[in-house]
């Protein structure tokens, strides 16, 4: 452990502890209570500080960063209201099992009792979206508390840790000492009984689904899972929402549980048993009148190979050994010939097919295409190998911030953000951060000028079709959003296209040049 100088402040101790534990990126939107921490960060050029103009951009960027870096960034948020502004994307990060360390400023301890206008119960606000919350009591406790927060965030499978920093704790002097090192527990080891039970299930000849998530969806463990499925006759699936998947040509073909409840029930019909690899039992996103909440057949047996906090890679390796799979059993890799380029007016399908054809090798795709991208996996068969980062918790406004974090984590890789127009407006400010940081991101706005998913949901819940008042709440065409002007106003070059031919030209240019570029893909009606 490095020494803390005897004259250091609590803010300096916090910054030193973060750096000493490998956290060197701070996504920030600070205020008065955080100014001493801002000053400490200013004294530490090793820390990259990135400003988001809204706290949802800050928390979403931290999510994208950790998904790709496999280590947390730190967020800096201003008091309870600042944290509250960022909670929706912390919800998504929590569902993605992403490690995030939040630093939330608080009034000086002696000032809280006066109930100043920004006073709130920060711990209560943090609790629903955090796995670990602590308010630092004294300057000398900063380093140890920060190390505990890092350990909590980095414990498997990845957690949200929120550290509350009162202003006087931040500016107060410490007695020195050592910079604390986080004691990160290893993932739990697989259970031998669970491995044997899963192996027995895979040998019994029943119709079986292997449902995976988390680290099991990286390229190498997916190959192991695919070999297990090939040898046993099981079907390999991924959860509907996952933090990160490695997919594309030459990688394992794996589909997700469909979002649509009827499609999911049909897809899983006849399943007699399901083997969970860090995953949850599949359930409907919402309740629908007359439809079940659980998507599995009622008699389906549930076999848990590994819980989310388990070493999933080790569990799959052990299961493969237990099954004594022959070396000749090969994984089912994607060798699908890429589809021909479409022509004519842009639709959701033709936009995504074209993007799949033109994706650079090892790109990172951040997906918040919502209704327009429901069949994205089918439409991008044979696409070059890439990482796929979707929205996970259903709280819209993640796509643009997610792309920031991914680009910061992987500066040598092209990031493509596939963004629905309605949800893009939730965190539009992210484009400014893309421009300021000169991030290599191509944003494709799927512009259907409505909350199209909600038109569908209105029908699915049995509430009918949209009349005048409903359309006033669900459509975005009066006035139409001008994404080129919006992007330009935030410092990002942009172009609008409405045919495949124009999209190919602009996308080809954007893929070749560095820095941010936005394409508004204006989709044909219907």
Essential attributes:
six-stranded parallel beta sheet; globular; TPP_enzyme_TPP-bd; alpha/beta; 526 residues; Rossmann fold; Acetolactate synthase large subunit IlvX; 20 helices
Question: Helix and strand layout, with pairings?
Answer:
Blueprint lengths: L2 E2 L5 H11 L4 E5 L5 H8 L5 E4 L3 H15 L4 E4 L1 H18 L3 E7 L15 H5 L5 E4 L6 H13 L5 E7 H5 L5 E2 L13 H12 L4 E5 L6 H14 L2 E4 L6 E3 L7 E2 L4 H8 L4 E5 L23 E6 L5 H11 L25 H11 L4 E6 L7 H4 L6 E5 L8 H11 L5 E6 H4 L5 H7 L4 E7 L4 H9 L7 H7 L8 H7 L3 E5 L2 H13 L4 E6 L4
Parallel strand pairs: 2-3, 2-4, 4-5, 5-7, 6-7, 9-10, 9-13, 10-12, 13-14, 15-16, 15-17, 17-18, 18-20, 19-20
Antiparallel strand pairs: 1-8, 11-16
Number of strands: 20
Instruction: Note the beta-strand portion.
Output: 15-25%
Largest sheet: 7 strands, mixed
The largest beta-sheet arranges its strands as 11-16-15-17-18-20-19
| CATH architectural group of the largest domain | 3-Layer(aba) Sandwich
Please tell me how large the radius of gyration is.
24 Å
Measured distance between first and last alpha carbons: 62 Å
Number of helices: 20
Organism: Pigmentiphaga humi
InterPro entries: THDP-binding, Thiamin_PyroP_enz_TPP-bd_dom, TPP_enz, TPP_enzyme_TPP-bd
Protein name: Acetolactate synthase large subunit IlvX
GO biological process, one term: small molecule metabolic process
């Amino acid at each position: 452990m490095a020494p803390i100088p005897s004259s250091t402040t609590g803010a300096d101790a916090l910054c030193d502890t973060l750096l000493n534990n490998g956290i060197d990126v701070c996504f920030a939107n600070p205020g008065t209570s955080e100014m001493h921490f801002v000053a400490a960060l200013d004294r530490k050029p090793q820390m990259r500080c990135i400003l988001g103009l809204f706290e949802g951009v800050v928390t979403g960027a931290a999510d994208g960063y950790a998904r790709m870096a496999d280590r947390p960034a730190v967020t800096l948020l201003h008091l309870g209201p600042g944290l509250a502004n960022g909670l929706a994307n912390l919800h998504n990060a929590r569902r993605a099992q992403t490690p995030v360390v939040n630093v939330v400023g608080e009034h000086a301890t002696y000032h809280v009792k006066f109930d100043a206008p920004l006073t709130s119960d920060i711990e209560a606000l943090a609790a629903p979206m955090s796995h670990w919350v602590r308010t630092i009591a004294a300057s000398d406790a900063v380093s140890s508390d920060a190390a505990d927060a890092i350990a909590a965030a980095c414990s498997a499978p990845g957690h949200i840790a929120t550290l509350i920093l009162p202003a006087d704790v931040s500016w107060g002097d410490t007695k020195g000492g050592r910079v604390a090192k986080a004691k990160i527990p290893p993932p739990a080891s697989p259970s031998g009984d669970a491995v044997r039970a899963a192996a027995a299930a895979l040998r019994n000849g029943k119709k079986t689904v292997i449902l995976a998530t988390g680290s099991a969806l990286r390229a190498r463990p997916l190959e192991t899972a695919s070999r297990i499925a090939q040898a046993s006759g099981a079907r390999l699936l991924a959860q509907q929402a996952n933090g990160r998947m490695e997919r594309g040509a030459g990688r394992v073909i794996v589909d997700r549980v469909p979002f649509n409840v009827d499609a999911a029930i049909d897809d899983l019909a006849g399943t007699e048993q399901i083997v969970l690899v860090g995953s949850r039992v599949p359930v409907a996103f919402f309740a629908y009148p007359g439809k079940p909440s659980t998507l599995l057949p009622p008699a389906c047996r549930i076999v848990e190979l590994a819980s989310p906090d388990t070493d999933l890679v080790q569990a799959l390796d052990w299961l493969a050994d237990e099954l004594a799979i022959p070396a000749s059993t090969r994984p089912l890799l994607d060798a699908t010939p890429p589809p021909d380029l479409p022509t004519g007016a842009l639709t959701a399908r033709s936009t995504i097919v074209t993007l799949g054809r033109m994706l650079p090798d090892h790109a990172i795709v951040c997906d918040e295409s919502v209704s327009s991208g429901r069949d994205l996996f089918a439409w991008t068969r044979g696409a070059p190998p890439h990482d796929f980062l979707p929205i996970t918790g259903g709280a819209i406004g993640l796509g643009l911030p997610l792309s920031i974090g991914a680009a910061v984590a992987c500066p040598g890789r092209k990031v493509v953000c596939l963004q629905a127009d309605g949800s893009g407006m939730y965190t539009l400010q992210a484009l400014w951060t893309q421009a300021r940081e000169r991030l290599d991101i191509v944003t494709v706005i799927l512009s259907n000028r409505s909350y199209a998913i909600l038109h569908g949901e209105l029908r699915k819940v049995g509430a009918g079709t949209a009349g005048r008042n409903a359309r006033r709440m669900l459509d975005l065409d009066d006035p139409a959003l001008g994404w080129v002007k919006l992007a330009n106003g935030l410092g990002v070059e942009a172009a609008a296209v409405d045919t495949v031919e124009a999209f190919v030209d602009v996308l080809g240019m954007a893929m070749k040049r560095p820095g941010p570029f936005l394409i508004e893909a204006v989709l044909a009606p219907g």
